[in-house]
Amino acid sequence: MDATEVKQFLIRGVKRNPGGTYPNKEWGFGMIDIYRTFDSLRGEAIQR
């Protein structure tokens, strides 16, 4: 796994406000949710 893949998994796991446009200056891609990030990783590993 390289840095680009890590970035994509972190972005996949963020929490976002429904009405927002992302990325933005205030929140970037959203609030990091580590649990969702690892859940996304686990789901990816199961599919391989």
TrEMBL record:
A single MF term (Gene Ontology): serine-type endopeptidase activity
Protein name in the entry: Uncharacterized protein
GO BP: proteolysis
Listed InterPro entries: Peptidase_S8/S53_dom_sf (IPR036852)
